[in-house]
C-alpha cells in the first residue's frame, strides 16, 4: 500500500483542484518539440475531469528570475496540452491575484485552466508561506503529479501541501511505486549499472548505491577514474585523476558492505572522439598511449549480462560508453537489450532514469520494455542518492 494519499482517497467532484504538473517541455520556434511530459500527466487530468473536478494546472517553465518574463510564459503550451488532453485548456496570465481566483471560481466540473508560470513570483522558489496562501486561494485540494520537480522545496511542490489536503497524482504514484520496487523494498539480488561521463557528478549516488545493492557495475567514462585509481594507465581517456581517493573510498565502502564492484576488463579504444573512428578492442591494462576508451568491450558486456541474469531488480543510470557516436553505443545497446529481454520474460524489474539514460535507452529501443523509465532527471538522481525529496515527503505526511 502506498505511504501517501492518492486520487483513490480524494473526493474531487465540484472541487477546485490545483494540480502541479511538469510542463517544462523543450520548445522550438515557439512550439512544443517534445510533448512526453505533457503526455505523462494525461491520466491524472483525464481522471480528474471525468470525476467532475474543476482543474487548475500549476507549473514552472524555464528559469525566469522571480518576475514575469514572456520568453518563459506557459501560454504557448496551453494549446498543445489541450490537444493531448482532448479538452480545452484556458490560459490565465497569473497564478495568484484577483483574476486567477475569479477564473478558478468561474469554471465548472471538467473544465481546465492553466495558470501562468509559478516562477514569475519570487515566492515560488523561496517557498514563501505568503505566496502559498495566495496560491491556495484558488484551490480546495492540491494534487502533485510532478515527480520531476519533487526534489525542490518550492511553494507549488511543497508549501502548498501544508495548506490544502494533498494527494499524489497518478503519474507521481506510478513513479513512486516504481522507485519503491527499485531501491525501497526491492526483490534481491539488486544490481545497479552506473555509467556516464564523470564520477564527480555522481559521488553521492555511488556512495548510496554500494550500501543498497548486491552488485554495482561501473561503466562509461567514470569507470576510467576507478581504473586509474587502481593503477591502470587509461592513456588519453576521459578521467578525473584528482578523484582517485574518492574512487578508492567508494571501492572500500563497497567491500565493507559486501557489494560486488564490476569494472570493465576490456575496452573499445579510438584515437578520435567521432562517429565511425577507427577502433579496436583491448584489455583495459593495454590501452595504447595515443588512444582513449570510448566504450566497454565485449568481455565486459558478457560480465554485465551475467549480472543482469543473476538480478531480480536492476537500477540503471548512465550509458556504458559514448553512445551518441557509433559504434561506441554497442555495449549500452547490448546490455539494454539483455535487460529488456529478461524484463519481458518476467524475471527482472528494471528501473532506469536520469540525464542521458532516457535517450540512451530510447536509442536502444527498449524504453517500453523496461519496467519503468523515469524522465525525471534531477529528482531521479536525488532518489538514487538516497535523499528524501521534499515534494514526496510532504505527501507522505499529509
Ligand atoms: P552522464 O550525463 O553523466 O550520464 O554522462 C553521459 C555522457 O557520458 C554521454 O554523453 C556519453 O557520451 C558520455 N560517455 C560515456 N562513456 C564515455 C567515455 N568512455 N568517454 C567519454 N564520454 C563518455
Automatic annotation (TrEMBL):
The keyword ATP-binding applies. Substrate binds at residues 22-24, 37, 60-63, 119, 152. Pathway: Carbohydrate degradation; glycolysis; pyruvate from D-glyceraldehyde 3-phosphate: step 2/5. CDD domains: Phosphoglycerate_kinase (cd00318). It is an enzyme of class 2 (transferase). SUPFAM superfamilies: Phosphoglycerate kinase (SSF53748). ATP binds at residues 202, 324, 354-357. GO terms for molecular function: kinase activity. Keywords: ATP-binding, Cytoplasm, Glycolysis, Kinase, Nucleotide-binding, Transferase. It catalyses: (2R)-3-phosphoglycerate + ATP = (2R)-3-phospho-glyceroyl phosphate + ADP. Pfam families: PGK. It is found in: Cytoplasm. Its main location: cytoplasm. Its EC number is 2.7.2.3. PROSITE patterns: PGLYCERATE_KINASE. The keyword Transferase applies. Monomer. HAMAP family: Phosphoglyc_kinase (MF_00145). Belongs to the phosphoglycerate kinase family. This is Phosphoglycerate kinase. It comes from Tianweitania aestuarii. The lineage of its organism: Bacteria, Pseudomonadati, Pseudomonadota, Alphaproteobacteria, Hyphomicrobiales. The gene is pgk.
